[in-house]
Amino acid sequence: MGHIQRRHLTGARVGLLLSSVMSVGTEVIGRILERRVTNALRARDLGQLRDTLLPRLLSGKLLIEEAREAVEAAA
Hints:
The chain has helices at residues 6-10, 19-59, 64-74. α2 runs antiparallel to α3. It is built from three helices and no strands.
């Protein structure tokens, strides 16, 4: 970036957030990321449960009540 000169950088201003604002933002984003990970893990587990139970349900090898019990045990 040859068009940028040292005087451009020297004159540049940078905005900084208050540490209290940063703390709140970090806390909120942390909770969002934690929820995202939790939801991804739940989705994976439910997908595995679906893939296990659905073929057995469709073939008649598993009764609805047995499937319900399996789902409740997994939850």
